[in-house]
Design brief:
three-stranded antiparallel sheet; TIM Barrel; 19 helices
Length: about 550
């Protein structure tokens, strides 16, 4: 578009000037108008703050004109359930305003329907904390008894998004923002690229089923390559991706159009081909082998924090992993719980919509099981899945999260306008494309500041929410602090919706009725729920009792 504009503007100026010189002086008016528009277009291409205007000179201004034609309180994207009923509204302009340091206050009070089912709120205190006395940069230490290089991380970090799915400029801007704001940037399963390291931000290296960046010629895990890259000082933690909330049970997909020679070099694959990661890991095939793999990675990395990411599916499988942890006395330093509502640029719609437990359900379950089996103190929990606001952090913390990861909000901060072109290589803002004609519009030096701004003020808002609730620490919030409306006359706390399990309760055999079957079929030696089709409580009473 930039080159087209240059050609058209030059031709138009030359033609109008010649017509004015040889035909009629009236053409000087046309020449003057074209000259003004040309200078506006040249300015658009040279400025660094607005990606759309850099890529689409003159025409890109129409987007900002349309935004000004309507009040910002209507700039919501609405998530709906299968019946089309709105269950939550997230004001995406809040992300833009925080990123740009614009005023993010809102006139006329609450814009949500507070009497609609699904509306949530946090209880405030008559004796709130003084905001000025609170720690506006809360941190959490990742690292248990076997970790030799613990990491002191932020409570809000950039969730997994691969280079290849995102452009090099977008990755570099996010990592630059992480450097400024002192928080971490997850690489996604696409491998550790130069752009994750160039700005010097802290990195969480994610290892997926494709083992990109640490794989041999056959695509299997390579201990030597892993050890080489895990030793890079910027790599603070390593995350094994077992499943992704947006498409659990489905491997990642890199379209051929995005698989450039550079990306192929980073991932150790053939360029110009569609790369589909296997849906399962080949480095381990049982819960016990997963725990052994965690120990292997910790040893190879020099004792850095090792964790895994999953979306909850069969609950018995997660319980089996916990049993394997206890029997081997080896624990991950963290577990990232992803929700089925997580986003992606490449997944079958049925997987995005109907596979995997939502974040709140999965998060509450993981926290309960770890506490009930008395191993929670070894493991930090990270929540991932549409975390956008300070309230979302508070809600996740109430269900047991020690920290949160967010992806789409960080994409919005670097300029994403949700054009829904992520899987086409035609992202108009240069965020999710490898087309250099589009990526040049995203200026790293500008966008990294916006990422840092968004992080800073979202964490600040969370801390103020804690203060309003009379809490001085993230660990103090409980499920009783969050309410959810069920109907016009009924509302419950999260404690009532997700009844918590007492510390060590499951060790003493007090397994809740709803988890008895899950514990009965939690087997350290294999995945899955055996004889699922023929299972009945009546026919398996002895096995359930034994659990």
């Amino acid at each position: 578009m930039r080159r087209t504009f240059l050609v058209i503007s030059v031709i138009s100026l030359v033609v109008s000037f010649l017509l004015a010189w040889y035909i009629s002086k009236n053409w000087y008016v046309v020449f003057g108008i074209l000259l003004i528009f040309s200078f506006m277009g040249y300015y658009d291409m040279l400025q660094t703050r607005h990606t759309i205007r850099r890529i689409y000179p003159i025409f890109g201004r129409l987007r900002y004109v349309m935004e000004e034609l309507r009040p910002k309180i209507y700039q919501y994207f609405i998530e709906s359930d299968i019946d089309g009923r709105p269950i939550n509204r997230i004001d995406r302009s809040t992300v833009y305003q925080r990123a740009k340091l614009d005023n993010d206050t809102m006139p006329f009070g609450t814009q949500l329907d507070v009497y609609a089912p699904g509306y949530e709120w946090i209880c405030h205190s008559i004796a709130p904390k003084n905001f000025n006395t609170l720690d506006h940069n809360p941190r959490v230490v990742f690292g248990n008894k076997d970790c030799r290089q613990p990491y002191n991380g932020s409570i809000l970090n950039i969730s997994a998004m691969s280079y290849g799915s995102l452009s090099s400029n977008a990755v570099e801007a996010m990592n630059g923002g992480a450097k400024i704001g002192n928080f971490a940037h997850n690489t996604g399963e696409g491998g550790l690229s130069d752009y994750h390291l160039k700005q010097g931000g802290d990195v969480i290296w994610q290892i997926g089923t494709g083992y990109f960046g640490c794989r041999d010629e056959q695509g299997n895990f390579s201990p030597s390559l892993f050890a080489e890259k895990a030793g890079i000082p910027a790599v603070k933690m390593i995350e094994i991706k077992i499943s992704q909330g947006a498409k659990p049970g489905h491997g990642g997909i890199l379209p051929a159009a995005k698989n450039t020679p550079e990306i192929a070099r980073i991932r150790h694959v053939t360029p110009g081909t569609t790369v589909e990661s296997p849906p399962y890991h080949t480095a381990f095939s049982t819960p016990r082998e997963l725990v052994s793999f965690i120990k292997q990675l910790r040893d190879l990395s020099g004792g850095k924090p090792i964790g895994f990411k999953l979306c909850i599916g069969h609950k018995s499988e997660f319980i089996a992993v916990c049993k394997a942890m206890i029997s081997q006395d080896t624990y991950p330093d963290f577990i990232t719980v992803d929700g089925g509502e997580g986003g992606t640029g490449a997944a079958p719609q049925e997987f995005s919509n109907y596979v995997g437990a939502p974040l709140l359900d999965g998060l509450a379950f993981v926290d309960d099981i770890l506490k009930g089996m008395n191993i929670r103190h070894h493991i930090k929990i990270i929540a991932s899945g549409k975390i956008t606001t300070g309230f979302h952090i508070a809600r996740a913390a109430a269900l047991g999260a020690d920290a949160c990861n967010c992806a789409r909000a960080m994409m919005l901060a670097v300029g994403c306008i949700q054009a829904l072109q992520c899987n086409t290589n035609r992202c108009p803002t240069g965020v999710a494309t490898q087309d250099p004609k589009l990526t040049r519009g995203l200026v790293v030096e500008d966008k990294k500041l916006r990422v840092a701004n968004y992080h800073k003020y979202t964490v600040k808002t969370f801390v103020e929410l804690m203060g309003a609730a009379g809490l001085g620490n993230m660990k103090d919030i409980s499920r009783s602090h969050i309410y959810r409306r069920i109907s016009l006359t009924s509302m419950f706390t999260y404690e009532e919706i997700f009844p918590s399990i007492r510390q060590g309760a499951l060790v003493n055999g007090a397994v809740p009725e709803k988890h008895k079957a899950d514990f009965a079929f939690a087997d350290e030696t294999h995945w899955g729920w055996p004889n699922l089709g023929s299972w009945s409580e009546e026919g398996n009473k002895e096995k359930i009792a034994a659990s």
